[in-house]
Specification:
This protein is globular. By secondary structure, it is of the alpha/beta class. Helix content is 26%, strand content 23%. It has a seven-stranded mixed β-sheet, sandwiched between helices.
Length: 207
């Protein structure tokens, strides 16, 4: 059976995320600008890149290679179409992160925004352990009610997501990363209009 994210139209996803009542696309764009400029790195992997929200903040004078990973090839095609200025810098990788035989390139920074919720702690831990980047920056959603998808006219598009959704919390994520040699360096939280929060948690590898 296909991963549910392969069947969600990018327009539905982005229109939902950018609603005034949700405001996640805009908030994540601001946070990703900070993620991309926080560290002196030349390579970055963005897990679950979707339509490339935030890629406009890539500084080509500093970053030499950006790997955008997603399970939906149409999302990746749209990234390439939207950011022609990143030709030669941005490389799209179509991959299901739940695949046990997954192989991804080396990178100094891994960004995973609203991604761990759909692969779980163990899978995320395995991915980080296989690449061993110096830095990891994640954004997770803090829910204030039972629903992890905010109410909107596009709600039906996300019907199958509960098949792959995992509830993620800060403490468990920090403990998961500690077990593979990463220590927390930052927590930054942003309030959303519907009462939910986006929590950015950064880690650095212990040498």
């Amino acid at each position: 059976m296909k991963n549910p994210w392969e069947e969600i139209a990018l327009n539905d996803y982005e229109n939902h995320m950018s609603l005034d009542s949700v405001y996640q696309l805009q908030t994540m764009n601001e946070m990703m600008k900070e993620q991309l400029n926080e560290y002196k790195i030349k390579t970055v992997i963005i897990l679950g890149v979707a339509g490339g929200n935030g890629l406009e903040h890539i500084d080509r004078e500093k970053i030499e290679k950006v790997y955008g990973v997603d399970v939906n090839q149409k999302y990746l095609d749209e990234c390439v179409n939207r950011y022609p200025e990143l030709a030669g810098v941005f490389k799209a990788i179509c991959a299901d992160l739940l695949n046990d035989n997954l192989q991804l390139p080396d990178s100094e920074l891994i960004i995973a925004n609203l991604l761990i919720e759909y692969i779980g702690y163990e899978c995320f831990q395995n991915i980080i352990n296989s690449i061993k980047p110096r830095y990891v920056s994640c954004i997770i959603q803090i829910n204030t009610d039972k629903s992890f998808v905010s109410d909107s006219p596009y709600l039906q598009a996300f019907d199958r997501l509960d098949e792959v959704y995992h509830q993620i919390d800060k403490t468990s994520l920090i403990n998961t990363m500690n077990k593979i040699g990463y220590i927390k360096t930052l927590i930054d939280e942003r309030e959303l209009p519907n009462g939910k929060k986006l929590s950015r948690i950064d880690f650095i590898i212990k040498y």
